[in-house]
Amino acid sequence: MTARRSARPSGPAARGGPAALALAALAVLGGCGGQQAGGSAASGPAPAASAAPAQGSLTVELDPDGPGGADAPRTWDLSCSPGGAVAGDHPDAAAACAALAAAGDPWAPVAGDTACTMVHGGPQVATVRGTWEGAAVEAGFQRGDGCEIARWDRIAPVLEPGATTPTNNSQ
Length: 171
Prior knowledge:
Blueprint: H1 17-30, E1 56-63, E2 74-80, E3 86-87, H2 93-102, E4 125-132, E5 135-142, H3 146-154, H4 156-159
Antiparallel strand pairs: 1-2, 1-4, 2-3, 4-5
């Protein structure tokens, strides 16, 4: 009896070999950790800087070296209006208001089921309180993992005057 050969090839070459495996791994890894609360992709294109101006009145408190650190917390007031006017003692109010307008939902926490890289971004903690778009705000920010770092970075000019958002960073 003659053995029939399958019409389908088998072995690594038939499955695409190492190149196919690498592409599959990239596709899987590309989907990990990029989703932020509210459904926006952390690594996707950033909203245009010309996003519609948003409004609110906020108090920002930054503890640059975290609880128990030697540096005293810093506090700023920030007001943004739809016409683009800014007020308060925030050192870079215009950039802060622009970052908030571009961020979509800047106060959304990281979803509990989000896979985050275990990367520590520093001891900084910040709290933002006030009203934004007519709603009360009390949001805490820290840099304890990759998701929280991305959340911080989306509104970095608010939390750390002089900082840039990753899409505006020329590095």
